[in-house]
Structure formats: structure tokens, C-alpha cells
Design goal:
With 85 residues, the chain is mainly β. It has a single domain, classed as Roll (SH3 type barrels). 12% of the residues lie in helices and 31% in strands. A four-stranded antiparallel β-barrel has the order 1-2-3-4. It is globular, with a radius of gyration of 13 Å. The termini are close together.
């Protein structure tokens, strides 16, 4: 979908695209992916920290506040955005 407007696609295509970018679903996140997370200390402000996923810490298939990961920088937080290349 890069370079195109979401308006160029059908409703189901848009929903599928959005779901793949959803940081609340564990299967969408893999080690090596670039993500934006919210650190525990930044939960109130919502400040995002960008990094590369080292490992997934949440064991359940989904979490309403985001899957908890540890970044290569050893920072821990919940995924708010998956950065697509």
C-alpha cells in the first residue's frame, strides 16, 4: 500500500492493512521489526520511543494496551505503532 492513498483500496483491504499495523496483536510483531513503544515512565505523557524489537514479553495473543516488548536497546514498553518500511 506504500505510495497509494487508502482511498484506492476497498474497505476490507483497509481493515486488513490496519490490523497488520496493530500493536495489540502479538502475531503482528516479530523480533527485528521497527516499532514505537511507550515506556512505563512515559505512560502519562504518551511519549513514544522508537527501536528494534529484541524479544516479545507478552505471552497472550493480544493485549488492549499493546504487546510488551524489549528493544535491542534493552528498553521495555508496549507497542503503540509498527513502523513499516
Amino acid at each position: 500500500m506504500e505510495g497509494n492513498s487508502l482511498m484506492d483500496y476497498g474497505e476490507m483491504d483497509v481493515i486488513a492493512y490496519i490490523r497488520t499495523m496493530d500493536g495489540t496483536i502479538r502475531s503482528n510483531i516479530k523480533p527485528g521489526m521497527r516499532v514505537n513503544i511507550v515506556l512505563k515512565k512515559d505512560q502519562r505523557s504518551g511519549t513514544l520511543t522508537e527501536g528494534t524489537v529484541k524479544a516479545l514479553l507478552t505471552k497472550s495473543s493480544n493485549h488492549p494496551h499493546g504487546i510488551k516488548v524489549i528493544l535491542e536497546s534493552n528498553q521495555v514498553g508496549r507497542v503503540k505503532e509498527i513502523i513499516s518500511d
